[in-house]
Amino acid sequence: MSSADLFVRKVSTNLSAVFNSKGEQVSPAMAAHEAQRRIDIKRPVLMTSERACLCCNERFQSEGSHNRMCDKCRVKSAGMADYAYGR
Ligand SMILES: [Zn+2]
To answer: pLDDT tens digit string along 33-42?
Structure first.
């Protein structure tokens, strides 16, 4: 029952992630309800491989090939996307 040790914590203004009992982040940053859902379905953490961010080259835990930017840059690019769509 390792999922009992998991909880959601905010990692930035808009994003949360799943953390384990050691306080280690075990999921990519995502919306809080999505992080909670991963705990609820007891499959929070298909852990992810380490990648270098496309933007800033920082190492981060990537969820897969669709996920190539670190949390910070994802937040930034999400903000820009909102701006682009909301013309
Ligand atoms: Zn980055």
So the answer is: 989 988 887 6
Tell me how far apart the 2 most distant CA atoms of the chain are, in Å.
47
Residue 40: both structure tokens together = 């609820």
Q: How far is it, in rounded angstroms, from Cα 87 to Cα 84?
A: 6
Cα separation, 18 vs 2, whole angstroms: 13
Q: What is the pTM of this model?
A: 0.46
Distance 24 CA to ligand 1 centre (A): 19
Integer Cα distance of 45 and 30 in angstroms? 12
Q: How far is the CA of 82 from the centre of ligand 1 (A)?
A: 18
